[in-house]
Design a protein that fits this description.
Largest sheet: none
Structural class: mainly alpha
Number of helices: 14
Helix content: over 70%
Radius of gyration: 25 Å
Distance between the termini: 82 Å
Length: about 350
């Protein structure tokens, strides 16, 4: 088999696997916007598999221009998908659509205008610099919120995203930039296609093992544990000790309190505390767990006639929030109203 044939076979295998993933995700999670982002990511990745050309400097054909633009804009989808996957409070906004459209339009125009004008190398460099920028944002988001994640399967996917983004995404973009204009390399394209197929295969295997529904499902409100599935006695004692720690010491008030701090106070490993808060109390994120206690304290203070003149920001800071904006957003997400509205309703009903 020639290198060209091997390259085509690897690309075709990756595209076929991505098509299967897109269909499976559409069937199981097509009604969720997280699932739709995953489908869009799979389709954009298929466009990448069909169009990448290490070392190529010829102006792209008119038929391939939309696919190249779709592949370039797929890095925006990856960034948004990782934000949605790793941040349960994230919501898509119209601005995100405009960002995707801007990157798609930039790539489209650069291929249609700069490429035919003899600046194909500039097109390749510009598109891959954009890719590196959004790749950096994706890695920053993935790493920054890692410590607060309580879902074990999702934590493993974070590690995979970091490794795959650096091993394939970063290397591919840098290789494209470094070799632009040097002439097509069949060997480089085969190696790149093999790496890409490996990443796609690993994603498919991970989703089968972890469960796409468990990872992509939005956070549900914590529910009481039914009696028939009550935790083991040891876990029950730990839950009681944790809740006493929160109620008596009000440790959630401390600045920059981490899951490591709580684990140390309970004399258990961090991984066990993560499983306890996630499995027994139903929280997917450590900050959500802390904020639940902070908001309960704030609700009591806002409903107290004796504190009617205390500024909202003082109540928020006393409860452990560092600024008013995050407090207002978290409070409204839980209660459906702003702190001021909540205070007015409770005091008027008193």
């Amino acid at each position: 088999m020639t290198l060209e044939s091997l390259d085509l076979a690897l690309r075709a295998a990756a595209i076929a696997l991505l098509a299967v993933l897109a269909v499976a995700l559409g069937r199981d999670l097509g009604r969720q916007w997280r699932g739709r982002l995953a489908i869009a990511l799979a389709l954009g990745s298929a466009a990448h598999a069909a169009t990448f050309d290490i070392g190529g400097a010829a102006a792209p054909s008119l038929a391939s221009v939309p696919l190249i633009a779709l592949a370039t804009a797929d890095i925006v989808v990856l960034w948004l998908f990782c934000r949605a996957l790793f941040d349960d409070g994230f919501a898509l906004r119209w601005l995100h659509g405009l960002i995707w459209l801007a990157v798609f339009g930039f790539s489209l125009l650069s291929c249609l205008v700069l490429g035919p004008a003899g600046h194909a190398r500039l097109v390749i460099v510009a598109n891959n610099v954009l890719a590196l920028g959004f790749l950096g944002l994706t890695l920053a988001q993935t790493i920054r919120s890692w410590a607060a994640d309580l879902v074990e399967g999702r934590r493993r996917i974070r590690a995979f995203v970091v490794i795959a983004a650096m091993a394939y995404g970063g290397v591919n973009a840098l290789l494209q930039i470094a070799s632009a204009g040097s002439g097509p390399s069949e060997l480089a394209n085969v190696i790149n296609a093999a790496m890409f197929l490996g990443v796609v295969g690993a994603v498919a295997l991970m989703l089968l093992k972890v469960g796409a529904g468990d990872v992509l499902a939005p956070e549900a409100p914590p529910a009481a544990v039914p009696e028939e599935v009550a935790p083991k006695a040891a876990d029950r004692r730990l839950v009681d000790a944790l809740m006493r720690l929160m109620a008596d010491e009000r440790i959630y008030r401390q600045e920059n309190v981490t899951i490591g701090v709580l684990a140390t106070k309970l004399s258990i490993p961090e991984y066990r505390l993560r499983r306890l808060i996630n499995g027994e109390l139903g929280y997917r994120n450590f900050n959500t767990f802390l904020n639940a206690h902070r908001i309960e304290e704030a609700k009591a203070a806002l409903a107290d006639p004796a504190q009617a003149e205390v500024p909202v920001i003082t109540i928020a800071m006393d409860a452990g929030f560092q600024s008013l904006g995050p407090f207002n957003r978290a409070f409204k997400a839980v209660t459906g109203v702003t702190p001021t509205e909540y205070r007015r309703m409770r005091l008027s009903a008193a």
